[in-house]
Each structure stands twice: as C-alpha cells, then as structure tokens.
Amino acid sequence: MRRAESVVALAAEMTDAKKTPEATLRAGTVALIGRTNVGKSTLLNAALELPLAIVSRKPQTTRSRLLGVVQHAGAEVGLLDTPGLHRAKDRLGKEMNRTARAAAADADVVVFVVALPARAQGEIKPHGGDLQLLEQMPEDLPIVLVINKIDLLKDKSRLLPFIDAYAKHRELAAVVPISALRSDGISRVLDEVAKLLPAGERRHEEDEITDRPMRYFAAEYVREPILAATGQEVPHAVAVTVDEYSESPDGGLVDISVTIHVERTGQKRIIIGDKGKVLKRVGISARQRIEQLLGRQVNLQLWVRVTEGWRDNPGKLADFGLMGRGDGTGR
Asked: What count of other Cβ atoms lies within 10 Å of the Cβ of residue 172?
C-alpha cells in the first residue's frame, strides 16, 4: 500500500516527517514474535504512529502477518506483526502458529515481546511459555527482548531477575522495557533493531507503509468491532471476506461489500442483534475506520452467513486468505 493508493493524509504527514537519504544504510525485516495478547500489534501501531493493525483484548486477534515499514535512524525497518503463538485447537490455530514461526525464520532480527502480569506481587517470573518459545527461535538470529506493560511496575529494579531469567535461556542483543499502549520506549526499540539490520539498499518505496492491499484492511476493520461487541465463542468463529471493492476513478465514493462468516445460526443472531442493532454498530465503526485510512467516503454493505466448520476446513481457510502467508482478503 502506497500513499497514492491510500492512507492519503496520514501517510503524507509520516513520509514528510521521516525522510531518509536516497541510499538507505541498513534495511531488513524484523519479526515481532510472542505469545498471544502481549502487545505486538499495539507495538507495530506505535512504531508506525498509525493505527494500522487491529487490536482487541480477545486472544488470537491477529491471524496473519502484517508488514509495517518504518524509516528510522537511516534504516528501513520492516516490522512484521505476527499471530500470537498458542496451543492450537483447530486448523486455523495451527496455520496461525505456522505463519508466526515462518516469519521468524525469514527475518533478519527477532523482537521477542513479553508482557508483565497485571498484578505482579513478589518476585516477577517469566511465563513458562515465553521461555519455551524463546528457546525455539532460530539460533543464528539476533534477538531483542521487549518487555511490555512496564507502566504496571513502579519499582523497576524488580525487572533485573526477570531479565536475567531470559538471558539464561538465550543470548540477547538488547533488552528494552516499553509501554506500547503509551508509546513509551518505542523509539529505543527501533534504535536497537536498526543497528542489527544488514547493510543494503531500501527494499520498499519511501512512501510505502505496508504491502497489504486495501481489501485486507476492509476485512480486518469489519472484524475489529465484532471482537469488541461479542463474547464467548463468537469472536473466534468469525471470518470476514470482501466480495466487492470498487473505487470510483474520480476519487469519490468507494463501494465495499463484505460477508461475515460464522459457524452456527446462534452466532449469526448474536452478530445481527435485536432488530439489526449490533450489525449496524459494527458497520458504522468499520466504515469510519476505513474512511480514515482511505481519506475517502465509503459505502459499506455487510452480510452475515453461516459457514459451518470453516476453522477446520483447509479449503475455506484458503478461500479466506488464512492458509500459509495468505493475504487475508478472502478473495
């Protein structure tokens, strides 16, 4: 996605503020890796200074990899947001884990993101799953340990044994405490990874923010308010596909038609809501989010369909852009 195609006003401001020399000194890919709900997507958005990735409190919000390109300190940093690694219960979960591990294997640097517990009393100990995942990272890659939610800890000296526990399991290139939600420490993360990237020319156009098409974001920005509006099993049972995406050549209205897939009739009723109220709220929120990114007016139509067992159906996962790398557009 480039400025001429979308992100009109916001991308222009970002590009002007972050110009780099014609010959980029360092350029590469940085995979954001960690368990689910540690703040990887929030970190990406803070680094971009743009709410590109969807976020929610629901686990497994991120389902596919998302590239965000940042120009920082003479380097082109390609940040790859990835699904949170977790114990998969279905084919979708297995594909999400595979996507994350593949991103780490292909990266030049890994930013391993962990989060402090909400109520940390006594000695702060790493989550056992974090240590296992850290040991599984490719041995030849430099790893920057990013400790998120540092704002929850008043006495920062309590971090020392916490950091030491990770350092005993893997050599760390750097350790950076941050608060992704408050955008605190983000610049230092970029400083550290920029130094670790290989020397070389830029891999993306200077005004390129991401390699994802607008169809991808249209689907994601419909899914985001559904995650916020529903509970229990519904968020995990939802997939969104874009049936039609049409931009008028005169820069006017953008017509988008989207199908929301669920696995059971009861889930469909929940998403539609009483007299269609829930679906209407979802549509308003999604339309406003898409319009903010496009800088154009959008006509958004939503449909809800029962697609039984799609999470364990390889054919449906492929159709929805959720097999392998995918593009998440469900074309």
From this structure: 15
pLDDT score of 176 more than 80: yes
pTM above 0.85, yes or no: yes
Q: What are the strands, taking DSSP E only, across 119-273?
A: 143-148, 174-177, 239-247, 254-262
Q: What is the pLDDT of residues 3-28, one digit of tens each?
A: 434 443 444 444 444 444 455 489 99
For 2, other C-beta atoms within 10 Å of its C-beta total: 16
**How would DSSP label each residue in 53-108?**
S---SSTT---S-EEEEEEETTEEEEEEE-PPB----SHHHHHHHHHHHHHHHH-S
The two three-digit tokens of residue 105, written as one number? 């294997």
Provide the pLDDT for residue 6.
45
pLDDT higher than 80, residue 71 = yes
314 class by beta-carbon count within 10 Å (0-12 exposed, 13-18 middle, 19+ buried): exposed
Domains of the chain, start order: 8-196 (3.40.50.300), 214-319 (3.30.300.20)
In a 13 Å sphere around the CA of 44, the CA atoms on its Cβ side amount to 28
Beta-bridge mates of residue 72 = 75
Who's near 290: CB < 8 A, 6+ residues apart? 217, 218, 221, 254, 256, 298, 300
pLDDT of residue 324: 63
Higher-pLDDT residue of 120, 223:
223
Q: What share of the chain is helix, strand, coil (3-state, %, to 5)?
A: 40, 20, 40
Tell me the mean pLDDT in the region 214-242. 95
Q: Give the number of other CB atoms < 10 A from CB of residue 102.
A: 15
